Each structure stands twice: as C-alpha cells, then as structure tokens.
Amino acid sequence: MLDDMLDHTRELRSKPVWQDAPESVRASFQAPLPRKPAELAQVHQTFLEQILPYGVGNTHPGFMGWVHGGGNAVGMLAEMLAAGMNANLGGRNQIPVQVEWQLLRWVRELFSFPDTASGLFVTGTSMANMIAVLVARTRALGKTVRQTGVAADGRNLVAYTSAGAHGCIANAMDFTGLGRQALRQIAVDADFRIDVPALRAAITADRAAGLTPFLIVGTAGSVDTGAVDPLDELAALAKEEQLWFHVDGAYGALAMLSPEVAPRLRGLELADSIAFDFHKWAQVPYDAGFIIVRDGSAHFDTFASDAAYLRREQHGLAAGSPWPCDFGPDLSRGFRALKTWFTLQVYGADRLGQVISQTCALARYLSKRIQQHSQLELLAPVGLNIVCFRYRNAKGDSLETSATGALSDRPRLPDGPGQLGQLNELNELNARIVIAVQESGLAAPSSTTIAGQLAIRAAIVNHRTTRADIDTLLDAVIQFGNTLEGHSVEGDPA
Ligand SMILES: *Cc1c(COP(=O)(O)O)cnc(C)c1O
C-alpha cells in the first residue's frame, strides 16, 4: 500500500488531473452489505482500480480549481501512525493531547497571541468560524445564553462581513440560530476588500434601529480573488465599537509563514479569534482546520460542560484539565495534531513559507502571461495566489474599448441589451472552456463570477505546481477557447 501510494504520487504528472468515473465504477458502489470476509489484497486492488484514479485531483500539480491543499508524504505516513494509535483526543491524561497543545503553542507564536489564548483542531474553517460566532455570542450576551437561548435575551445580535466573504460565515449565523439575515454583507472596494466607511455606517444604522452589533468578520485571503481586508482598520473599528473581531484566514492566515507575504496580513495579530486550515496552504492532509481565541476563558465558557462522565481529577486518567472537548462541540476527536506536528517538523516552517511565496510567484507569472496575451484578460487584481481571468475571442476584442487590457479598466457591467447579449455569450463560452479543460485532464481550473462576468479561476495552492503547469493551463484555455468559439461562430443550424 505504501509503495503504491508513493508510486502514485511520483507518477501524478503522467495522469489526468481529473477524470469522470465510468458508470461501471459508480455501479460497483451499489453493492449489498458484505457479510463475509474478503482478502485485504483484493479490496486494495479494487481501491487502486476504482477509487484512487477518480479523486478530485488536488494532489496533481495541474489542479487549480479550488483552494485545496496538495497534501504531503510525511503527513500521509503520520496519518497511518495516528490510525494505528487510534487516539481519541476529546481529553484525558495522554500525550496525544499534549501534541495538540504543542501545536496551539506554535500557532500562538506565529500569530503573536498571548499564552492565555486557547485553540484546537477542528474539521475545517467552516467549523472554526462557527465556533468563533458562538464565542462572540457568549461574550455579547453572557454565559446564561447557553441556558436560555438567544431568543430569551431579547437583544437582536447583528454581525458584519464583506460581500466577498466565504458562504460558511452566513451558514455559521444560520447554524447558531442567529439567522442569515443578521449578517450584513458590506460592499467591497475596487480591490475586493471590505469598504470600511460603509461598514461603520452600517453599524451606526443598526444601533440606531435598536439592534445589537456584536461581531466583525474580516477575511484574510478571500476565496474568489485572494483579497485581504484591511485587518488593522477592522481591528481599530471593532475596538472602538466594542465588537468581537474574528478573521476568516482559512488559507491566507498561514501566509504568516512567508516573510515576503506576511506584511500583507498586518492587523491579523489584533484579532480576537482566527480560523484557518493547515490542510490548504500548509499542505497537511485533510482535514486539519484550527481555531485560536485570544481570550481562552471566553472560549472555555462557551463550550465547557459539567457532565459526570467528564469529571476531572488531579491524578489518573481523568487528570490534565482543561481538555480539548472544553473548547468545541466534539467529544470524540481524531489525532489531527500528529500529521501537522510531523509536517511542520520534517519540512520546517520556513520551507512551508517558501511554498506559499512560490505559489504567489506562480500567480504573478500567470497574470503576466494573461496580460501579454490578446485573447485573455484579467478580471481581478492578483494579491496572493488566485487569478481570475477570461478568454475573449480570436481577434482579441473585449466588451470594453480597452486599449491596454490592463486592470485599470475594471470589468464593468454592460450598458445596454446589445452588450448584455454579448456578455451572456462570453460568460457561456468561458463556462464551456472551464468544463472542456477539466474534462481534458490537462488542468483543473474552476469558474466564479466577478461583477457579473464569468471568470476562469486558478487558485495555485499545491507545492508541486510549476511554471510548466501554468503554461499547460493557459495553452489549454486558448486552444479550447479557439475551438469552442469557432463552433459558436459557425453556428448550429439546429
Ligand atoms: C476554504 C475556505 C473556507 C472553508 O473552509 P473549510 O476548511 O473548507 O471548511 C472558508 N473561508 C475561506 C476564505 C476559504 O478559503
């Protein structure tokens, strides 16, 4: 199994980034419950033939579709050790919990948080953001809200984030009973960063309407364009308004590992809490999300319970309080800390930082090539590692009468019905290009919408990606663009 996985990783480049599974493979997962034992070798063979070739492709250097990490061999081995040990990290007196606390200490150091900050591993940033919403809620309404529920309090809590924020923040408001409508999605500026004056105005208006602002969620590395909100300004505003300041740094927060990119995160160290994923830019195998909270007691007060079976002692197996289960909703918890501990130690934090710098350099290379090509145009500034662009047409005409094709000509919505038809056609063409490139197995970009324009999105996260992979993506986009456009120009008589 080990040899097979190492071979697979070494030979990734010769395989398609992604391929759709044939019906026969799908059908094999409709089998009835296996009552009798089978040979391990036989089941492994089925894995090799019917599962391994049909993943999303995020270990492949040509995968740029979404912000997915590439994983790493050291993390893979550590997962085997963790499974062998089969540790349950809800709590109790065991060294695996100390490994998790070691990671917490490293995270505090990285973000310049105090020794009293708390934190723990969770599935991912979606869960980490939800935990932050809950801690902020408890801070705003007091611990009794855990008994009475939010409705009993009578105050209507409202939170603020940007229109470019990840959807899981609205989900967190939903799941915690505060409701999506209690999340204000503030407009973004030309660089897709939250508009701070508009945010200030929204807080003032909500207070005037008798509502209770309690939380600002900033984004460090937005999922669509890689935008980083002005975190220092958000921190100052939150302090002035006495609101909780949480940062969704799902992938961007770990740019603190890169001395070159870290200055872009100024203000992150002022957050009350930060959610991020080791499984994205830090390349730790899935899943390894993390939440850190500056005020450890506010975090503890939100989750700790006094169930009899969780009783603590000074000695024996029930010693070592507080436990991870005091800081989140999970009691049974896997040993995510081990693969992260191994990855950080074996490669070293600096090397992981270099990977982050390198993917940002590749994004700059991609954006430069796009700007040099008459059939391509950038749709958003490239701040970190995400590039949004589109194919225009063979003559290089664009909707805008742009002389330079440069970003000073920000994408605009069409003025009239004629232009709207043209835009729909262009959006349709780019959506088809993305699917064609994915199905070719050459590269895997995704699509998103930027100001009404369908963008081809390349998120460069994988440590294995090189310039050659960027060139392959661009060649494929142009080739499929030319072919598909040729078809639509000739017209289909049907
Ligand atoms: C990926 C991402 C999330 C969601 O994180 P998960 O680990 O997938 O739960 C949230 N916010 C941003 C900005 C992201 O990039």
Give structural notes.
The structure is a single chain. This protein is α/β, with parallel strands linked by helices and 494 residues long. Helix content is 42%, strand content 12%. It has 16 helices and eleven strands. It has helices at 2-10, 23-27, 40-51, 73-85, 95-111, 125-141, 145-148, 150-153, 167-175, 196-208, 231-241, 296-303, 336-347, 349-372, 417-440, 467-490; strands at residues 118-122, 157-162, 183-186, 212-219, 244-248, 273-277, 289-293, 376-378, 386-391, 446-450, 453-459. The radius of gyration is 24 Å and the shape is globular. The structure holds pyridoxal-5'-phosphate. Pyridoxal-5'-phosphate binds at residues 67, 124-126, 166, 168, 219, 221-223, 248, 250-251, 277, 289. Pyridoxal-5'-phosphate is lined by residues 67, 124-126, 166, 168, 219, 221-223, 248, 250-251, 277, 289.
Report the bound ligands by name, code or SMILES: pyridoxal-5'-phosphate
Radius of gyration: 24 Å
Number of helices: 16
How widely separated are the two ends?
Answer: 52 Å
Largest sheet: 7 strands, mixed
- In what order do the strands lie side by side in the largest sheet? 1-7-6-5-4-2-3
SSE arrangement, N to C: HHHHHEHHHEHEHEHEEEHHHEEHEEH
> Which structural category do the helix and sheet elements fall into?
alpha/beta
The beta-strand count equals: 11
Could you name the ranges where pLDDT drops below 50 across 5 or more consecutive residues? Answer: 399-411, 489-494
